[in-house]
């Protein structure tokens, strides 16, 4: 697919999920800042991503190694798309390694695996750490065995762990950033402030989302997931959950939704 021409971005932060137990926590943390975020499968098609028209994309962590057969990755054409659209990309843990491995860097199995609370030291007081409220030394939560040992052209290391491993990288010109630790968990003591700084100061996002916007955004996600021609079958029991789900999906795709009533034995007599 050819990258689409530059278009006005939504205020959406899109999270590509690579299997981390913390991925949905990223979503909640961002929404708590009054910014809308959505989480989709990290191997989703490029068409699914472009239709959502995000202004920021976050690559989540995950339990995989980038060297493993079948390791999940963003779709072909992803790097060209985000560069052409000027989209900020933040890789977290495995997401950082995906960026490095796929744009000319080298990721290897680390000599010392890093798990749990660790201290990092900021080496560059700009970009990811340009916020004066973020200290030069931080306690963060690590969970990785692989590490970036050679960065792609144009990247620089902006923080290292107390073991000397790469902890944060960035290429401000291309708007690519990476954190080897998990800022979304409370164990990373300044992680929330780092996310806030990234979204508002670096990416220029404006806060203003609230729960009233959920329906509109969920309809957009369903349309992107289903596509323009596919049909959906919905098991409908008549309860609140399945009825609401069916209603929302019908708003998104109309008569391409086919509901099958499931009698679970809990309906009232003659209902």
Question: Could you characterize what this model shows?
Answer:
With 271 residues, the protein is of the alpha/beta class. It has 2 domains: 13-202, Rossmann fold; 231-271, no CATH class. Helix content is 27%, strand content 28%. It contains 7 helices and 11 strands. It has a 9-stranded mixed sheet with strand order 2-1-3-4-9-8-7-5-6, with helices on both faces. β10, α7 (240-253) and β11 form a beta-alpha-beta unit. α2 packs antiparallel against α6 and α6 (214-226) packs across α7 (240-253). The chain is elongated.
Order of helices and strands: EHEHEHEHEEEEEHHEHE
Cα(first) to Cα(last) distance is: 51 Å
Query: Uncertain segments of ≥5 residues (pLDDT<50)?
Result: 1-7
Count of DSSP helices? 7
Fourth-level CATH superfamily of the largest domain: Class I glutamine amidotransferase (GATase) domain
InterPro entries: Class_I_gatase-like, GATASE, GMP_synth_GATase, GMPS_ATP_PPase_dom, Rossmann-like_a/b/a_fold
GO molecular function, one term: ATP binding
Keywords: ATP-binding, Glutamine amidotransferase, GMP biosynthesis, Ligase, Nucleotide-binding, Purine biosynthesis
Domain GMPS ATP-PPase: 209-271
